């Protein structure tokens, strides 16, 4: 038993070990091993989403254990604002509710119960921004409405805690208001115009407006205690704009340099100071409001040397002003900070566990804490409102049910316990150490440490579009016809006849049936896939855009500075890290736009008909003939362009260390041609692997393939579960690897092979894909399989796609940024076209263990590895 006890101690070091695994090891006395992986008959692999004990696991693998009483708080609650008397809290919900409406919830500050739900419609529109505030006299509430370009004015009856719509005030076109503040006399409201780069002053009585210039992407606005100064946080910069204000008269005064991408601010009038949450510096700037200078900077990073990712976004003060509470969206906690002159100023006294992605915090007069979490417990199980109606199928963004936590201000002892829980949840005690390895582990070529040698000298990273695991590999089988991996064939749309190459990859190399996309949709999915993070600007923008608000699509390099989740936006993405280390790379289609989209002041030389990234470093290493997202361009055409370069690399012995490839056509353009476009995508992927495996570079190359997100379909395990492939002589084992992986695991693995540090806290903490690789290579080449679906090879690769008259996608939606069509209608259109018009489209599932006994038995027959 001593050997088993030692193994048990080693297991406890790992982040994801089920209680059943520990019990099995303790009782059985024997542990079966396969390479470096634990046999699946002993261990049950964890899954993302809500767990049976009330906790949850994010797709990135971080445990979520919110404390206090948890109350439902709508969908993606973006803020929490306490009423002047402290009896109620207002919560603006950015994502539509079950009735297709955006809402403001009025919740009881004592117990979090819902007192009123205001569904916005009619004159109020449906736009909801995080910005909502009370008038100083407590009789009115003002709400910013994002793309509706209005301020909604509500009456507030404090005796019954009810809002009543009074009017909407139009703002200048293109404002995109995100936040609102009120003048001291309540006659004027000040609104940030995030897309106009303006601060807008509005006369509440007359509706008259005026504007003043501020910095890039203004987000929050606060007014000084004397009512004479407005401060605006510029999310696209490292600055606050300071303006003198008096009614409609606004005069720019100065600019204060703070941390990267500042979010919310909090004025402490008693101490003549203001706190600023710097989202991607992971710091709080303390502003001396008598001088408008930075007096202190408080770090909220989890440990010294941590990469970016804490993402502070909101703030609250204790009633005595001694303690600052900071919502850390990236760490799923609230930091408790000493800001008094007693003890060390700026010391983090502790951390409070929250739901997934906290966005608001308030302290009530009786010292209770109110904390909103935008993503709650994750997407969670959802059966739909009407099982007989395909239209009841819930879209992934509509599964993000937020929460409001109500809890007493913790004592010192309780806070210490909470802090330990956060450290355990996020695995902070291991800091930047590579996870998953024990000292005696053998049998994998994944480096144990950054800089260790490996036989892999070349990486090809291919990103595709929007598919779940079950949509493609739910019908996966072993050679003997038995089920392989954890799939559900009843919801497979693009099975072996459509995607023979992806099926063959999963059989011949390694099956990854517990792999997750870290974002929900393309806007945050692409950020996760290329920089291992999605910052507060992008998370709010994603929720607004995909909830129907029409926010600006800022992923895939459209606006790289503001969406970059790093203290240095110019050094946030994977290619930036490669350039820092003089590692050669080449880009095919990722983050590119047509030449006409590049402004003359960007310093990028262009030619008509070619494609360019806004990012100069990426642009200098891009094939400008390779198309952007255009469903009228065949992936065969993309392969031909790439292959021309590849054959040149072979001939000249100069293949770059890394290649980035965008292969987008599995996004599809509607049900009528869905199978054909996915088959086209599969064939192109097969050809890439075929070409590499028949070349001299096969012996030292690893090809990583992943979807940017999973929004386009259902999955019986979790809506975030996706298809992924790792293709190399060192993965040609035929195993099923059911370890918990996600996009950040893939990034961490590539980083280790490349010899570079992680980009964020998320890839730093991710378990690399250790068990997918062996140290015994199989150099047999791969031969492309032709899909049996017709007419994939007759689709003409032109710049235009013939659009059926009943298509849910318009011509313009087939070109440019992904996800322009209504995603739910597109999903239903594809389902009906393939399964039949009368076959109900099932809802995505979010089960903790999957299919239970049958799957467990199947995994035993699949040479699975996993704990």
What does this structure look like?
With 867 residues, the chain is α+β, with helices and mostly antiparallel strands. Among the domains are: 1-47 and 849-867, no CATH class; 458-848, Alkaline Phosphatase, subunit A. It starts with a helix and ends with a strand. 19% of the residues lie in helices and 27% in strands. A 5-stranded mixed beta sheet has the order 37-40-34-41-42. A 4-stranded antiparallel beta sheet has the order 6-33-32-31, with no helix packed on it. It contains 16 helices and 45 strands. Pfam families: Phosphoesterase, YNCE. It comes from Neobacillus massiliamazoniensis. Residues 53-342 form the YNCE-like beta-propeller domain. Residues 1-39 form the signal peptide. This is 40-residue YVTN family beta-propeller repeat-containing protein.
């Amino acid at each position: 038993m001593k050997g088993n006890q030692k193994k048990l101690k080693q297991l406890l070091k790992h982040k994801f070990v089920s209680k059943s695994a520990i019990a099995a090891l303790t009782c059985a006395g024997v542990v079966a091993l396969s390479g470096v992986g634990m046999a699946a008959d002993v261990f049950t692999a964890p899954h993302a989403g809500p767990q049976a004990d009330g906790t949850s696991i994010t797709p990135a693998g971080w445990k979520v254990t919110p404390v206090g009483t948890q109350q439902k708080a709508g969908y993606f609650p973006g803020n929490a604002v306490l009423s002047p008397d402290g009896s109620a809290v207002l919560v603006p919900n950015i994502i539509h509710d079950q009735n297709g409406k955006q809402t403001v919830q009025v919740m009881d500050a004592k117990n979090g119960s819902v007192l009123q739900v205001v569904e916005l419609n009619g004159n109020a529109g449906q736009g909801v921004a995080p910005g909502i505030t009370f008038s100083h006299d407590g009789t009115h509430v003002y709400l910013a409405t994002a793309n509706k370009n209005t301020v909604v004015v509500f009456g507030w009856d404090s005796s019954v805690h009810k809002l009543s719509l009074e009017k909407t005030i139009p703002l200048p076109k293109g404002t995109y208001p995100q936040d609102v503040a009120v003048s001291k006399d309540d006659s004027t409201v000040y609104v940030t115009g995030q897309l106009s780069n303006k601060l807008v002053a509005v006369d509440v009585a007359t509706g008259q407006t005026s504007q003043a210039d501020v910095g890039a992407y203004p987000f929050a606005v606060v007014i000084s205690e004397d009512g004479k100064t407005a401060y605006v946080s510029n999310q696209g910069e490292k600055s606050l704009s300071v303006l003198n204000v008096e009614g409609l008269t606004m005069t720019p005064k100065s600019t204060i340099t703070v941390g990267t991408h500042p979010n919310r601010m909090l004025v402490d009038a008693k101490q003549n100071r203001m706190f600023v949450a710097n989202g991607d510096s992971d710091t709080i700037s303390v502003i001396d409001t008598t001088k408008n200078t930075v007096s202190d900077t408080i770090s909220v990073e989890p440990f010294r040397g941590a990469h970016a990712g804490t993402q502070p976004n909101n703030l609250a003060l204790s009633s005595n002003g001694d303690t600052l509470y900071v919502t850390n969206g990236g760490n799923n906690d609230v930091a408790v900070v000493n800001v008094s002159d007693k003890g060390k100023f700026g010391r983090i006294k502790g951390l409070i566990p929250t739901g997934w992605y906290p966005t608001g915090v308030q302290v009530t007069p009786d010292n209770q804490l109110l904390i909103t979490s935008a993503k709650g417990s994750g997407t969670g199980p959802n059966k739909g409102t009407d099982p007989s109606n395909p239209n009841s199928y819930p879209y992934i963004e509509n599964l993000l049910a937020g929460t409001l936590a109500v809890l007493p201000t913790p004592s010192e002892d309780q806070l210490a316990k909470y802090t330990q829980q956060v450290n355990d949840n996020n695995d902070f005690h291991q800091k930047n150490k590579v996870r998953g390895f024990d000292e005696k582990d053998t049998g994998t070529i994944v480096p144990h440490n950054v800089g260790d040698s490996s036989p892999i000298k070349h990486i090809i990273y291919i990103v595709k579009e929007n598919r779940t695991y079950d949509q493609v590999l739910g019908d996966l089988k072993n050679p003997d016809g038995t089920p392989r991996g954890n799939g559900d064939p009843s919801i497979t749309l693009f099975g072996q006849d459509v995607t023979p190459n992806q099926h063959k990859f999963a059989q011949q190399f390694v099956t990854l049936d517990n792999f997750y996309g870290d974002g929900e949709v393309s806007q945050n999915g692409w950020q996760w896939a290329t920089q291992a993070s999605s910052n507060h600007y992008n998370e709010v923008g994603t929720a607004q855009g995909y909830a129907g608000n029409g926010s600006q699509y800022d992923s895939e390099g459209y606006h790289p500075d503001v969406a970059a989740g790093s203290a240095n936006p110019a050094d946030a993405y994977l290619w930036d890290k490669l350039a820092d280390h003089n590692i050669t790379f080449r880009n095919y289609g990722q983050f590119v736009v047509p030449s006409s989209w590049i402004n003359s002041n960007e310093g990028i030389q262009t030619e008509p008909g070619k494609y360019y990234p806004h990012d100069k470093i990426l642009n200098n290493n891009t094939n400008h003939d390779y198309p952007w997202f255009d469903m009228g361009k065949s992936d065969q055409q993309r392969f031909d362009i790439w292959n021309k370069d590849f054959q040149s690399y072979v001939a000249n012995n100069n293949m770059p260390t890394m290649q980035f490839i965008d292969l987008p056509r599995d996004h599809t353009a509607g049900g009528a041609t869905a199978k054909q476009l996915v088959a086209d995508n599969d064939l192109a992927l097969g050809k890439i692997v075929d070409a590499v495996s028949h070349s001299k570079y096969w012996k030292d190359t690893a090809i990583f393939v992943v979807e940017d997100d999973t929004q386009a379909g259902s999955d019986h395990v979790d809506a975030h579960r996706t298809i992924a492939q790792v293709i190399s002589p060192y993965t040609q084992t035929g195993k099923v690897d059911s370890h918990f992986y996600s996009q950040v695991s893939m990034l961490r693995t590539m980083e280790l092979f490349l010899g570079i540090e992680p980009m964020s806290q998320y890839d730093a903490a991710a378990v690399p894909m250790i068990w997918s690789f062996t140290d015994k290579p199989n150099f047999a080449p791969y031969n492309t399989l032709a899909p049996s679906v017709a007419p994939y090879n007759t689709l003409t690769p032109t710049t235009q796609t013939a659009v059926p008259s009943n298509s849910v996608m318009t011509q313009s939606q087939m070109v440019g940024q992904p996800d322009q069509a209504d995603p739910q209608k597109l999903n239903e259109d594809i389902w009906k076209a393939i399964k039949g018009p009368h076959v109900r489209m099932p809802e995505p599932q979010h089960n903790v263990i999957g299919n239970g006994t049958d799957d467990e038995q199947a995994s035993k027959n699949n040479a699975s590895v996993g704990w």
